[in-house]
């Protein structure tokens, strides 16, 4: 199972959190390091996580049109 770690950037929706996952990559030709930020909508059943929390998310069956991830635990 693929687990990702990211920071919650939005907690305005009910039972949904937007998690920013940062990934470091290297350019194939120029070999320069750069970051790529992806925003993923994750399910939070009890609305217990707030903006700024670092959380771990895992993929689940599609819950809605945009949601196919679930928050498992708080890292920090």
Automatic annotation (TrEMBL):
One BP term from GO: translation
Query: Any idea which UniProt keywords this protein has?
Result: Ribonucleoprotein, Ribosomal protein, RNA-binding, rRNA-binding
GO cellular component terms? cytosolic small ribosomal subunit
Known role: One of the primary rRNA binding proteins, it binds specifically to the 5'-end of 16S ribosomal RNA.
State how it assembles. Answer: Part of the 30S ribosomal subunit.
Q: Which PANTHER family match?
A: 40S RIBOSOMAL PROTEIN S11 FAMILY MEMBER (PTHR10744), SMALL RIBOSOMAL SUBUNIT PROTEIN US17M (PTHR10744:SF1)
Name the family the entry cites: Belongs to the universal ribosomal protein uS17 family.
Q: What is this protein called?
A: Small ribosomal subunit protein uS17
Q: Which organism is it from?
A: Berkelbacteria bacterium GW2011_GWE1_39_12
GN (gene name) = rpsQ
């Amino acid at each position: 199972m693929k687990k990702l770690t990211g920071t919650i950037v939005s907690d305005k929706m009910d039972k949904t959190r937007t998690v920013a996952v940062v990934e470091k990559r290297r350019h194939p030709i120029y070999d320069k390091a750069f970051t790529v930020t992806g925003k993923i909508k994750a399910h939070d059943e009890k609305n217990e996580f707030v903006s700024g929390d670092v959380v771990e998310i895992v993929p689940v069956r599609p819950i809605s049109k945009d949601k196919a991830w679930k928050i498992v635990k708080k890292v920090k």
